[in-house]
Amino acid sequence: MPVFQCEDLTYFYSEREKPALKSINLHVEEGDFLLITGGSGSGKSSLARALAGLIPYFYGGRLRGRVYFDGRDVSQIDRRLMAREVGMVFQDPEKQLVMTSVEAEVAFGLENLGLPREEMVRRVAEALSFLDLAGLREEFTAHLSGGQKQKLALAAVLAMQPRVLILDEPTSQLDPVASEEFLNLVKRLNEEMGLTIILIEQRLERCFHLADRVVFMEDGQIRYDGTPGQLASWAAARDIPFIPPVASFFARNNFATIPVTVKEGRRLLRQNFRYCKTPPVRPVEKKDTGKPVLVMDNVWFAYPGGREALQDINLRIFPGELAAVLGNNGAGKSTLLKTMAGLLKPTRGRLMLDGRDLNSEKRFVPGRVAYLSQNPNDYLFQETVEEELHFTLKNFGLTDDGVVNEYLEKLELIACRKANPRDLSSGERQRAALASILVTRPRVLVLDEPTRGMDGRLKDELGKILSGLCREGASVVLVTHDVEFAAVHATRVLMMFAGRLVADGPKKEVLGSSYFYTTQIGKMCRGFADGVLTLADALASLELLWPNRKQKGEARFIT
Amino acid sequence: MYENFFYQDKGLFLQSLHPAAILAYLCILLVLALLFSNPVYLVGLLLVLVLNISAAQGGEVWGIYLKIGLGFALPIIIINALLARGGETIIWAGPNIPVLGRLTISLEAICYSAAMSVRLFIVISIFCLYNLVVHPDRVLALLSRFASKTALILSLATRLFPSMVRQMANIQEAMMIRGVDFQTGNLKQKLKSHAVLINILLLSSLEDSLEIAEAMHARAFGSGPRSSYQRHVWRPRDSFCLGGAILAFGLAVCAQITGYSTFEFYPRLGCLLKNTMAVFNLVFIVVFLSVPAVLSWGWRRCPYFNAKI
Amino acid sequence: MCFWKKAVFPFLVVCIVALLLVISRINPQLFGQGWGLIALVIIVAAIILFYWRFEQRKASSREVAVVAVLGTIAAAGRIPFAVFPSIQPVTFIVIVSGYIFGPQAGFMAGSTAALVSNFFLGQGPWTPWQMLAWGLAGASAGLMGKYFPTAGKTCMTLFCVVWGYLFGWILNLWTWAGFINPLNWQSFVATCAASFWFDTFHAAGNAVFYLFFGPSFIKILRRYHRKLKVVFLPDANCAHFPHG
To answer: Class for domain C59-231, per CATH?
Structure first.
């Protein structure tokens, strides 16, 4: 008997005309690791909520069809039992912790179940030990790192001893290291404990190989349901950008079995190609020309507590450049951006913008460098998107000389100019926030982790918009953990560590020579074709290595 | 800056007490401070507090609290001295003020003011001690036993506070980038620009609140009667401290009934210590109340003692 | 039966307070000079009764989360306004929250704001008084919203101004009751006169906040107040769901 079974499930949120789920038929077997993927708004989160019983009990709305858990209709099952058997971990760790201390947080769910004290003590102890959180037992939850918070959320759910674990994009707000750790834990739970896992994820690089089965959703419907390899071939044929690059590469070349990890990919490459010493595609990078727009000379920054977040930064940003700053958490990336934006004043050194020394200014002068923080919601509060742009113009004493229309058009916001920014989707919100700071036509735009929590399609759109701005002469500096994004869209890559700039150069040079900070394709092609970073690069170099293979007809790869 | 509790964990003896014990102790101190009017008894209480605060290594924090206390003490002294009319030993007779009547200063009123200032500093010091030794989390844990929903709201708010303060700083930066000036302008403009921060925070956090509610719902909140998880253990030290405080309270009630701990300010100053019993009573109250400070002293010096309590 | 069971606790609390009052009349010396202790007991009892009321009702997770968030916003609002003398948005936020979400939510938001912000700023003898004052501001605004839902902008601005002064006076009570002799209206007037300018700034700040942000805040809060209820829509083939 399947754990979950959906029969013709259709669901409307209240006050919505469009269904969030359309005739879903799905079954999940005990012990499965099911991956549900799809773009933003594809209905994958709604499906997860329907399985967990949050739809319709928490959301209300209108539901047709049935969901069975263990052969019983979810609508007939006691809520307490459902909460006990089906655990759910949400996207944002900030928004699912409720107690002040780690231990109390784990106990919260148990208290809600009304368990006796001895039982609670044992379960809390087990959950904290299993997830290695025992050392943080008394810690204030607000002071944990993002990764620790998400681990705690997982511990709190595990203490309820569920049979099924539903995870709704649990790593979208985490940095790569914490994401990796979290997903490995989930894998362990699946393998060691036999827990049924349903993972909702839109960035598949890290979890594609973990799943037994993948469901691809679009428009509230299930489009494909199969093994990761099968999905990769299916998606490659339809140009759907949700497949990790390695799988995509092989799927596009008609391999019979599709590898999903770098290791398997390299094995296949080894069988088919000899190592080639010279890279088939030589990186052609044009030299920096013109006057730099932003100059940092020996810039240091120390926080009032004395922590030196920036140490001796020397940097020149040229017009038309799109520079990506990589580095671990706490490396000083955000501080670097804020210093560039003038929000933080260097404690030593010189910061020049357009030939003017910013250190000599007593107060913050806005409008020269636009800064977009991680959370676009921090920018939006007017009634309409248009008013957001006018608000900025008014603050600067500028009049609308068509600039509002220009930027609404550039950022593809024309359609929602009259909409309340708070009603927009996350991608549109970000673009609205971006428009609200760009109307003053700043020379430099700096962005803090703009791709966080975005699906592949939105990332591509953002990359194109930013590249467009660069072509018009603006400079863009962005901090990101997303090496794949940097590899596709950046022209230059900077790497920071412990407040210092440890690498700086054209992206092919920096990412191509990096051992860890490189793309999946880069890792796979190392030794075969150095300097190949993106899927497009890889396909192009394959074309060089093996021209005319398409004309020869059938695929001749050993698999 | 405001992301940390005012309380700081220093691994002290007083910080290791059970929340119920330490709260009962502090409550009894507060009640005694408001009961006693005899200056000698009040000074006795102040002595206990000084001992405790030094055991809690809180000299610096106490300094801050004393400064705040001074702000409250000044109007108390002035109003008491000027408006009290019960004293017979008039030092200065002032003019007649329409609403307040005739202003006079008497020796008795000055003494009363002084005694009340001591009481004020005691009350302030009790709260200072509270901040030094009681972790907010422990209070919330204790409260959750009696009022689980209230405790939940309080702990959720406590958990959210640091991130909201941080978010407010981020919003301020975002608004600075968009040309909002927080430094210049008149008071009204500044108020408006700062209130924009609250506006955005309101929009964002209300959105978040639904997600928080969903996470709580998924973890079975509201599915039936709750039980309560208690994680703090009761040690012998808690019994000692609580016992001392209860004994001191009993003695204080006796002293209050016999009038040892009260003092006649009006119409003429009475006798400070009526007999030797009054002295003994005070000494015992101070000794009983000093149990935590003494234990703390022993705890730091003697490992054997340490393990026993 | 159920009603009587529920009434036992508040009855006990009221009895204790009444008993203390009677004793204080019989033997004024017993509680020392001044009303410090009795006043403290009364307001703590009042806060407990409000909390007890809240505990009695069934609160959904949405209500709990929204009330906690409103309390935190009010609490966090104290930080950026620390630069202004005694102008704080707390009273204003608590009043608009209470106005929309009702007396109980208003009280919870107000008292939470006081207690939680003081966890970070430092608790003091003023904490219980702040809890009660802000709680009452929220509760009274809730009653306003209940009985005068059509109250205009002028009316509500006035309400905010009044609470600016009331808040100050309630806070003055703790010094007045505990440390002043004689306890008559003259000495209370003198105490309030000492804090007059602070209270006036507070009231003026409230007025400015309400005039510029009141309607828009109320609009935002209304929107979320509607979302507190879970609405199930009927459907022809729909499975039956228990309502509520």
So the answer is: mainly alpha
Does residue B119 share a domain with residue B16?
yes
**CA dihedral in degrees (A165, A171, A176, A179; nearest 10)?**
-20
CB B211 within 8 A of CB A95: yes
The better pLDDT of the pair C142, A556 is held by C142
CB pair distance less than 8 Å for C54 and B150: yes
Number of domains chain B is built from: 2
Taking only residues 80 to 99 of chain C, the set having a beta carbon closer than 8 angstroms to any beta carbon of chain A reads none
Q: If pLDDT is split at 50, 70 and 90, which confidence band does A547 have?
A: low
Alpha-carbon gap, residue B286 to B296, rounded angstroms: 16
Closest CA to C81 of B163, A113, B192: B192
Q: What is the pLDDT of residue A298?
A: 93
Range B142-151, long-range pairs (CB < 8 A, 24+ positions): B142/B19, B142/B20, B142/B23, B142/B232, B144/B228, B145/B228, B145/B230, B147/C51, B147/C52, B147/C55, B148/A111, B148/B226, B148/B228, B148/C55, B149/C54, B149/C55, B149/C59, B149/C64, B150/C51, B150/C54, B150/C55, B150/C108
Q: How far apart are CA A394 and CA A79, in angstroms?
A: 52
* Integer-rounded Cα radius of gyration of chain B: 25
* Environment class of B246 (CB within 10 Å of its CB; exposed 0-12, middle 13-18, buried 19+): middle
Confidence of residue A457 (pLDDT cuts 50, 70, 90): confident
Q: Chain C: nearest CA to A110, how far in angstroms?
A: 16
Q: Which residues pair with A352 in a beta bridge?
A: A295, A357
Do B254 and B174 share a structural domain? no
Cα distance between residue A114 and residue A108, in whole Å: 10
- Locate A70 and state its tokens: 């263990």
Residues of chain B contacting residue A367, judged by C-beta atoms under 8 Å apart:
179
Count other C-beta atoms under 10 Å from residue A224's C-beta.
Answer: 17
B153 and B15, same domain (yes or no): no
Whether residue A149 lies inside any domain: the answer is no
CA angle centred on A128, ends A126 and A133, rounded to 5°: 155
* Structural domain containing residue A378: 294-520
Confidence of residue B206 (pLDDT cuts 50, 70, 90): very high
CB contact under 8 A, B218 and A52: yes
Domain span at residue B166 reads 148-218
Are B88 and B106 contacting, i.e. CB atoms less than 8 angstroms apart? yes
Indicate yes or no: CB of B161 within 8 angstroms of CB of C122.
no
A234 CB-near residues (< 8 Å, 6+ apart)? A216, A224, A226
Same domain, B82 and B172: no
Lowest mean pLDDT among A411-425, A512-526, B157-171, C13-27: C13-27
User: Do A56 and C241 count as a contact with CB atoms less than 8 A apart?
Assistant: yes
Domain ranges of chain C: 59-231
Q: In sequence order, what are the beta bridge partners of A493?
A: A324, A505
Same domain, A95 and A178: yes
State phi, psi for A80 to the nearest 5 degrees: -65, -45
Chains that touch A (3 or more CB pairs under 8 A): B, C
Q: What is the pLDDT of residues C142-188, one digit of tens each?
A: 999 999 988 889 999 999 999 999 999 999 998 898 888 888 888 89
For C227, the closest chain A residue by CA position comes to A59
Do A98 and B212 contact (CB within 8 A), yes or no?
A: yes
C86 pLDDT tier (thresholds 50, 70, 90): confident
